[in-house]
Sequence to fold (192 residues):
Amino acid sequence: MPKPEAPYTDDAIKVVDITDDLKKHHSKKYRRTKARPINRVILHHTAGGVTPGLRGPESTAEWCVNGRGWPGMPYHVYVPYTPMIDGDGRMIVWQTQDFDVRSYHTGGGQNKHGIGVVCQGLFVSPYCLKTLKRQPTDDPSEAQKTAIRHVWTWLSGLYGLSPDPSLSCHAWHGKPACPGRWLEDWVRRMRG
Fold:
């Protein structure tokens, strides 16, 4: 079984583990499963604003705990809209939940064996244009587009996954507006 926790680095990204720094519910806990078999990576968007720096994942975790009553951050990896850059020019991506945690990122049985990867932002989807109260961003940032490819390389290598059938998006599991048109199309292209 591979070591699930960050850090991970390659030529473009550095994954920093901030799981212990994020808000958690005072009494509720996600289920942990040692050696949890991972067979899926599911992409999401936060459907919110693009707060820079660590405030982005902190805000998401706070909303999930205070607004939804969840045990904590539901996503395992957080890709910021405008990433911080480390001293070697790599984009900082955050691990926001341990990989042995079965969180509430997708539902429909997907949480049992899936890792949730979220891109910060609200991205256009044909399903959400009529119902939105705020203006979405057309696509993820160029930095996110690069980072998400590298996150997939990291996770697929860690767990021996191939894009088809292991790469997916929330839209295919009951949430049609998530993660937006560009990310859903990217998953389709990756799967062939």
In short: Residues 37 and 51 are 33 Å apart (CA to CA). The chain has a mean pLDDT of 91. The longest strand covers residues 40-45. The beta strands are 8-9, 13-17, 31-32, 40-45, 77-79, 91-95, 101-102, 114-119, 167-169.
